[in-house]
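Input.
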Amino acid sequence: MADLKATPREAIGLGLMTITPNDSPRDITTILSGWNRDSKLALDELMPLVSAELRRRASRLFASERRNHTLSPTGLVNEVYLRLVDRRKVGWEGRAHFFAFASRTMRRILVEHARQRAAEKRGGGARAITLTASLASAEPDLDLLDLDEALGRLFDLDPEQGRIVELRFFAGLSIKETAAVLEIGEATVVRRWASARAWLYGELTAS
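Output.
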């Protein structure tokens, strides 16, 4: 299990970004099952149970952000809430599915802000990330936009590996949770996660 203070810098190399939530999976599952009947009511019941976990995940995503970012972890969670309000028919499959969607939404919001800032001031949207891999010692500095573009290329080549990276690195799901969301074996997740990391490292360090 990853240390609760591990940063994305450490996580992509170690393959660990799991947080043990202090919510009640049974309560969350019950609320999510009623989402399609009344999404607003379900969301209002759900947020008190998941807000602390979402803030922890948001804080982790902000670990390498610039100090003067226009968003804060709390602001990021608020934006996720606003986007969830518009989700009517979802068919949530449990807490892991919900947190995967919420964390993926956080990433997209940060990418949108980075692109906007980069458009306003060249280079201003870069979020420094140090990518490490067990098969290499070099640690080049990257930014969030580079990583997002590389992940998009990975999705084009292998959607399943792209999803695994999203769920493991950005959503912070465990091997077991990732396997459950994707409905594949845990051994497959381990193997394909290692392959995806190696591909991303090569893609992002190519001269």
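Residues 1-22, 123-141 have pLDDT under 50 and may be disordered.
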